[in-house]
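Incident review: delayed structure delivery

Summary: a single-chain prediction request sat in the queue longer than the usual turnaround. Root cause was a stuck worker, restarted by the on-call engineer. No data loss occurred. The affected request and its eventual output are reproduced below so the record is complete for anyone auditing the incident later.

Affected input:
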Amino acid sequence: MVRIRTHHIIIAITCVMCASSQVARAEVLGQQAVTKAAQNNLFSFIMFYRSNDAATQNMYRVLTSTLSEREDVAIIPVKMGDNSGQELVKRFDATRLPMPAVAVLAPNGAVCSVLPQRVTEQQLEACIVSPTQARCLKALQENKIVALCAQPTLEAEVPNGVRQFKAEEHYRDRTEIVTVLGTDPKEVKFLSQLRVPTNQKAGSIVLMAPPGVMIGVFASDVTHVQLAQKLAAAGKCCDDENCKFHNH
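Output delivered after worker restart:
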């Protein structure tokens, strides 16, 4: 499946390169900067680096040249070994990453991507995901099954099969229902990547399982039994060998 690999401040660059091409410190660093970015609905581009070498300078140059005109991002350099960044280093196990590296977080905390050593404009732009994609990413990263309902109207109810699926004991606590208007311009690219038909009057359903497995795209009249059987066939149902869905 597509790796569902996540606004109102003029670009919040919390650390900048100074004229001497060294990374300058800012008042807000590390996790505090990520928290502040999330509060302002910004994507955090966290750049881990060990020294201000040519690779670091080049990565920073691509980051700033690509993102400097955007109003929805924060660039947050983190030098390995600095106390202010240790929480982020631990979270991303950054000591194992080839340096420099960029980790991208959506405002809701979903990890959009981790890019080691060098980045391109296209890679960075692809990390800025739609709100619905960020919701799906976060749920999958929390080890949840995602039932994405592409609805024909804002007033449409969640399909009965999806509601019954979530009500099943096996799935109740580990399923997240995400709804989206199928014609939402902000979501067209994401839905297209998932090959979701958006011109159906009754809408469509996408079932996904962690870490990022596409179970399938279904019509809105799909039953909860059909969804569960597809999940079981993909090996993503549960660990209970006596589960009724394993035997269909």
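Verification: The chain has two domains: 12-126, 131-247.
Action items: add queue-age alerting; document worker restart procedure.
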